[in-house]
Design brief:
Elements (H helix, E strand, L loop, with lengths): L4 H8 L18 H7 L6 E2 L11 H8 L6 E5 L7 E2 L10 E5 L12 E5 L2 H10 L33 H4 L2 H6 L1 H19 L5 E2 L6 E2 L5 E4 L2 H13 L15 H7 L7 H9 E4 L7 H24 L8
Parallel strand pairs: 1-2, 2-4
Antiparallel strand pairs: 3-7, 4-5, 6-8, 8-9
Bound molecules: pyridoxal-5'-phosphate.
The site of pyridoxal-5'-phosphate (PLP) has 11 residues, from helix 1.
Amino acid sequence: MTFIATSNIVDLVGGKPVFVDVDPVTLLMSIDKMKEAVTASTKAVIPVHLYGQMLDMKALKEALGHRLDIVVIEDAAHCFEGNYAGEPPGRHSDVAVFSFYATKNVTCGEGGAFITNSPGLYEKMLQTRSHGMTAGAADRYRKGTYQHWDMLRLGVKANLPDLLAALLPPQIEVIRVRLPFRETLAVRYEEAFRGTAIRLARVRPDVRSSRHLFAIHVPPSARDQAIIRLNERNVGVTVNYRSVPTLTYYTKKYGYRPGDFPVSYQWGEGTISLPLYYGLSEADQEYVIQSVKETVLPLIERLEAAPVGNRFE
Ligand SMILES: Cc1ncc(COP(=O)(O)O)c(C=O)c1O
């Protein structure tokens, strides 16, 4: 249960992405299933802090036990402001990676950042993001006179341009205002849908979520109709995400099937992300909530009243 970027990069560098199903309550990687999936040839594990909720990274590290050869990479694209029991991404992993893509809570349009405690990995990544060069244009003059650079490894152009990065500090400063705002919106949605047929992921009490996305779940056979009805009311919704291993590329290349990851598949076929952004007014959010109650809930009720054979699985 993630965006395709998480697994695509594994495939792009010649690895085999091995997917692991998620916990049905949090929608974060099931640590038990991860343990079952780890083999002698496992090189890395990439948990995803989906929707802004952080996985228990200490528990994940403990589950890997003595396999110190396995690199742990946190996909923290949704979790810039989040933490687990007070610990932010990067404390119990080799590297945590953030995204500043246009849709993210803190954004400069494109680009991202990684954090690591490993000087070796830091050096390698600096080179990899800059064609593989051992020194960028400014670094070549660090000792006063020109120094040759070398190439030790293959790289790509993946640096965050300074002009874009300059957009970030003012946004980081206002996290203390924006994050509580997002939290208020998310809690209002949670309260509005409590006791209805709409399913939600649960944020654990020991987590500070970034509240990046607010996703609801409806019976899969009602989902696409629900999107149409909400769009008709001018409510902009999206889907985060259809289960990645069941997308065409992965089914064709690796033969993954929906039944391999039932929790992720079921969630992906029924999920809808509702508007959640800093500045969304209470009145507009109320309109969204009412629209869901007036258009989506009746769809579900009609399904539940249908003969058993016509119900979704
Ligand atoms: C979970 C997740 N991982 C990775 C990415 C990739 O980030 P970027 O678009 O900055 O490459 C995104 C979103 O864009 C994402 O949502």
